[in-house]
Amino acid sequence: MSTLGACVDQVRANVPLVHNITNYVTVNDVANVLLACGGSPIMSDDPKDVEDITSICGGLNINIGTLNQRTVEGMFLAGKKANELGHAVLLDPVGAGASAFRTETALKLIQEIKFDVIRGNISEIKTLALGSGTTKGVDADVADAVTEENLDQSIAFVKTFAEKMGCIIAVTGAIDLVSDGTKCYVIRNGRPEMGKITGTGCQLSGVMTAFITANPEEKLKAAAAAVCTMGLAGEIGFSRMQEGDGNSTYRNRIIDAIYNMDQKTLDEGAKYEVR
Amino acid sequence: MSTLGACVDQVRANVPLVHNITNYVTVNDVANVLLACGGSPIMSDDPKDVEDITSICGGLNINIGTLNQRTVEGMFLAGKKANELGHAVLLDPVGAGASAFRTETALKLIQEIKFDVIRGNISEIKTLALGSGTTKGVDADVADAVTEENLDQSIAFVKTFAEKMGCIIAVTGAIDLVSDGTKCYVIRNGRPEMGKITGTGCQLSGVMTAFITANPEEKLKAAAAAVCTMGLAGEIGFSRMQEGDGNSTYRNRIIDAIYNMDQKTLDEGAKYEVR
Amino acid sequence: MSTLGACVDQVRANVPLVHNITNYVTVNDVANVLLACGGSPIMSDDPKDVEDITSICGGLNINIGTLNQRTVEGMFLAGKKANELGHAVLLDPVGAGASAFRTETALKLIQEIKFDVIRGNISEIKTLALGSGTTKGVDADVADAVTEENLDQSIAFVKTFAEKMGCIIAVTGAIDLVSDGTKCYVIRNGRPEMGKITGTGCQLSGVMTAFITANPEEKLKAAAAAVCTMGLAGEIGFSRMQEGDGNSTYRNRIIDAIYNMDQKTLDEGAKYEVR
User: Fold this and answer.
1) In the record, which residues are listed under signal peptide (chains A, B, C) (predicted)?
2) In chain A, which residues have their Cβ closer than 8 Å to the Cβ of C248?
């Protein structure tokens, strides 16, 4: 059976073209991290442009951060076209639970578009599961956090929601959970300092879209491999930090580590169990 | 009496959530510098989203760079809601004086929204005070510059305008002036090379919003502390530059220096007098 | 006769103010690279703002990546105003050939606006010449690539299209071609790893606009000098890469190298022939 690391090589071999409708805060990092992992990014959000652009791609990454009424229309058009064409489609419900517009947009997206993966922090995912939430801006509410103490219940929640949605749910935080409803990867890569960089979640969604696009037969494994890749890159990047460095240099070091990621590095560094 | 450095620790202790309606040129740096100084950023500009988002935050940073008709509507809605809730609100009138749309938007914002701080370069601030100006794009007109020669008149101008507006005015340049109409901090931190990085002013506005949000009883001191923090970070970052480095690396080094800023470093490095 | 390197010094001496209507993916890098090469950037895309902003500038850079219906209107208004005022105007037709909206917008822009330079990858330029194309997202179709084998035909194509358009055509890739219809610079600076950074093409368009604005009497030479500057910066930046570095650090190193570029460095490092 192939390893998580094999998914990395598949991305580099296939160079998946990924269409991103994403926020303007972290879009440059999403583009660079997609190139770093072996994908090819294109960004397009206008209703007049998105159907053509998504048609030439293999995957679609919808991220609702800094959404507006025009780009939301683009999200629905692109998502439906991608569904028609059988492309891999991922949702990153940034800030669902923090505003009615974000919550309602995310809930409507998961009703009308078939997603392969929904990836968010625990508060965003709970918001989608429950219909409302208490997301703290773009960060999870600490009261929601997945911990060693509540791990069994958290896994059960993620599995149940994945089964209900018929897609992969990826909840990321100090402990990451990735489940298709049957199996659940519990991943412990990463560093707490990654939370001091804007957009590591957005970057992961971009990378994950490339991984599931390039590994269509093993999307659960590919989604888990993407989480391990990002977390391990956070560890490798941190090990290269020097006296006086801070979050801006750390951002560069993480993307650099993804640029240098390969099958062997990931297989040796991935920290996960399957439950 | 507490020092400027104490304001830094207050930001790290309180982790103020700051809503930013800001330009897409420097938004990523604004988010990372807010995280670096101890705040938590969220960006949102759509009229349907801004009131909810600003309601969960403690401070609002309105920056009119790359404004458009939709985001301008968002600025007014967010500003009014933030005023209702008693949040700290800052205006960065990027390019006021360079176009009629920017000048008129900035003038209308200061009429309809109560700001705690207006922070800009001298040409932008003169434009607001006089109703028109000669801002050179996003840079001050050299004819307007605050210098040792015109310092007394410049201080008098800033104090008078601060008193008239009933808020703090922060004019930044080679010499920075921060006044509430009574006292004026004259600050000489910083490096001229900071002008070769896009958005150090936008970054300062983000940091300053976090500082005044986390230090509500001492907003003048907090605003001055933010200016010293940014300038001192420019000095520290510059000291770490190596042969062959340029403005892109310098940008990272400055944000890194803010990430590592603490009370002691600021109190030892701040260069200011109160007039 | 002046050298290519002399064009660099002209930019630093004149500090051309460049108005950019550009995509939100790479806009921060475009601003920083414009500052690095000695220009001064301002970004503005709203129909209500662009005419005033372009009026105070010397050059206009129109980049259609992440275009939308509002910004397209801004492109036409700004372009016409810049033409009226005799400003240098450049088009970067990002993704022309990848969607009908992009192709039609680019074709309409070259009909209604007089450009000094059109700069794109070979697939984008072929799309403009032929009216349709097969651009692979934001990258050229490999079937279109300029190679040593098809160099004579490629030069002939670029010269013919430049003559027909009455402007400079700059096709960039592994081999770059810059022609005014009479002469063609064939340039071999650069590194293949530059393709792993998002927006090196967008950055070049920004730099090139500064170069033609500051060298109005020698626009062909200035456009070629900009291409050599970007490519040479890619070589210098690469030479500074260390074990573990990747595309994010490389991005910073290239902008840094442009920050340090001068006449002598460019004249010694430029690799070109005139055909």
Assistant:
1) none
2) 32, 36, 251-256, 259
Which of B253, B223, B251, B191 lies closest to B61, judged by CA? B223
Q: Is B17 helix (H, G, I), strand (E, B) or coil?
A: strand
**How many pairs of residues across B and C have Cβ atoms under 8 Å apart?**
101
The contacts of residue B157 (CB under 8 Å, 6+ apart) are: B126, B129
Q: Are B70 and A68 in contact (CB under 8 A)?
A: yes
- Strand, helix or coil for residue A57: coil
Which residues, in sequence order, are CB contacts of A259 under 8 Å at separation 6+?
A36, A37, C196, C246, C247, C248
B99 Cβ contact partners less than 8 Å away, ≥ 6 residues apart = C44, C49, C52, C53
Q: Do C257 and B247 touch (CB under 8 A)?
A: no
Neighbours of C166 (CB within 10 A): 11
What span, in angstroms and rounded, lies between the C-alpha atoms of A127 and A91?
Answer: 14
Question: Which domains are present in chain C?
Answer: 4-274 (3.40.1190.20)
Nearest to B53 among A29, A98, A249 (CB): A98
CB contact under 8 A, B198 and C35: yes
Backbone dihedral angles phi then psi of residue B90, each to the nearest 5 degrees:
-125, 145
| Angstrom distance (rounded) from CA B105 to CA C51 | 16
Q: Which residues of B touch A246 (CB under 8 A)?
A: 36, 255-260
Determine the Cα–Cα distance for residues C240 and C34; give it in Å rounded to an integer. 21
Please give the span between the terminal C-alpha atoms of chain C, in angstroms, as a whole number.
Answer: 18
Q: Are C219 and C272 in contact (CB under 8 A)?
A: no
Angle between the N-to-C axes of helices A4-14 and A219-239, in degrees from 0 to 180, rounded to the nearest 10: 90
Residue A249 to residue B259: CA distance in whole angstroms: 10
Residues of B243-272 as b/e, b for ≥16 C-beta within 10 angstroms?
eebbbbbbbbbbbbbbbebebebbeebbeb
How would you write the pLDDT of chain C (275 residues) with one tens digit per residue? 689 999 999 999 999 999 999 999 999 999 999 999 999 999 999 999 999 999 999 999 999 999 999 999 999 999 999 999 999 999 999 999 999 999 999 999 999 999 999 999 999 999 999 988 888 888 888 889 999 999 999 999 999 999 999 999 999 999 999 999 999 999 999 999 999 999 999 999 999 999 999 999 999 999 999 999 999 999 999 999 999 999 999 999 999 999 999 999 999 999 999 99
A119 is in an annotated binding site: yes
CA–CA distance, B215 with B250 (Å, rounded to integer): 29
